């Protein structure tokens, strides 16, 4: 199946259509004469949407190919039902990237292509700016005598705001500034009315900057000078938090804008980092749009269209913004490039980081990847000469690096996951009227068996790897070689029966802190709590107030936010990250500890970081505290090379999940058989599994994986394509879900 346009000669034109369904194939339809007329001399082209009958439904599809021939007999082919677009909705180079990524990530093409589009376009809506509600002055309101609202200051203020905006303001903006009561009172008086109109793009003037850029220091200047705006290169910009990376992004973007090009800026999280957005808006006198999941469908489409038309000069977005169309893209910036949120973890499992580099390469423009704690993949790309490594090693402001201290949990009495020494430190900090940040490490680490008395952990007999606890089946499993044994109840080293899964025991630490420190606010933030409107603002407001309090949160706290008055950071359960069987766990732990520590002592006060662990002598901690992230990362890279793990070997997994575990394992056994047959003719393929996933049970379903690795990425791709084709032919069972995960972040 290829991406192609053959010019029609005679006979009906065949359109190859991608439909958002789990099927991996495209579907051929014919273009009927009446619809050809609708196209009015224009050719049908890849990237145009059509309506087609599929099963018994009418669905939106995308043209991916135009041809004269089909493998299906003519009389079996249906006509398409309608043409939605008379020109492709994204430029052809971007559409080719969509298709490339569907193949690379082995995802059903229709689902992949539709994932890349804004929701309203997926549903077949018009690719024109949606009309959204605005409040407008009525004639009465425009001619209003200022005396009349003298006693209603808020109402007068709203009238003023609308007047200053040429008599019309978007409803969302009005709602953010005024209560609905104020608005309704004016409406009832007939002074304002609601209308539906297109959002107006802010007009840009010739001057690109609102405020002058900073004078770079010599290191920053060297880094900026190294960035060539006129050709493809990937740059890894490594520098601790506060070393001035963002200033380099801003100045590189300024140059791109001066060449009348646009810039795409990807960040992991927008809602937690309003400062980043503000900094861009303060600097540039240019139309900046944001793209993230908390926007309405209308807002997203609007921003998408402004990028496509070239009206938006800068797009600031999270992962999926990598699929935004541009008129003239000149630069891609990715901040916190190591962040795992850049990899989509379900459905179409693409990596926005890797696509950013591919997209930059196809457009012959630079990609700047920035981080204080670069991923091992990117560091390896620098070592191999594929990326240019730019480093900033000074902090631009004078904030000091934090002091680390380790609390040995073996020798402490613990309550709800918190040691006495730690409680004392929290107490002292609060009494000194400073803030504490308590970090819970809740996500994605597979539990290892650990002895609370002596710190012993369960290791595999055959290899260096830790065994993972699979509680439900009472077994310990090695995810490196597949070895299994029964779970034990007594420590083989000290005979204690005090065995626990690493990371256990912090479930109730928040309640416990509240009981222990009743006089101080304990504020919680995690992905769930931030879904509630206003919750995040309340959290940030408490933190920014500077009043003594305990901020409790998960990974989300490691990102971007500056807490000026936090002087103590507590990592409650370093064990789960230090002792996980996931081969990425040490890398993640190094990144997380460095990032979380960077949250403290950013103001005038210096910060202390307490790390609770049963293994205070763990080499990852030792190396991190004494030498820093970079030497740790290089050490971890050489371990990966010895262990023949990514990025030194290409890895993909086939995932299967079901509430009936046997369905999943049978399916993966079949996948293994098929892979083995194909692997005979493809060199250097290794298979492992089926194994339970590290997180075996989720949402009532049992999850299993088959791991496939190869020294050569192209060999792996070839194998996956063949296996996907064969599995697709297998009878469908709706009790089973399966998918490919290429370059997985989780096992
Ligand atoms: P990072 O993105 O690496 O965290 P920033 O670019 O945000 O670093 O810089 C940290 C702080 O230092 C910011 O307040 C920024 O305004 C300031 N800063 C950065 N570069 C300079 C410079 N060349 N001169 C003066 N201040 C700078
Ligand atoms: Zn023991
Ligand atoms: Zn093993």
Can you walk me through this structure?
With 747 residues, the chain is α/β, with parallel strands linked by helices. The chain is 32% helix and 24% strand. The chain is built from 23 helices and 34 strands. The strands form 8 sheets. Strands 1, 2, 3, 4, 5, 6 and 7 form a 7-stranded mixed beta sheet that branches. A 7-stranded parallel beta sheet has the order 13-14-12-15-16-11-17, sandwiched between helices. Helix 19 runs antiparallel to helix 21 and helix 20 packs antiparallel against helix 21. The longest helix has 19 residues. It starts with a strand and ends in a 5-residue tail after the last strand. The model has no long low-confidence stretch (mean pLDDT 87). It binds adenosine-5'-diphosphate and zinc ion (2 copies).
Mean pLDDT: 87
Structural class by secondary-structure content? alpha/beta
Number of helices: 23
Main sheet properties: 7 strands, mixed
Cα shape: globular
Low-confidence stretches: none
Strand content: 15-25%
Number of strands: 34
Small molecules held by this entry: adenosine-5'-diphosphate, zinc ion
Question: Gap between N and C termini, in Å?
Answer: 31 Å
Radius of gyration: 28 Å
Helix content: 25-40%
Short structural description:
The protein is 32% helix and 24% strand.
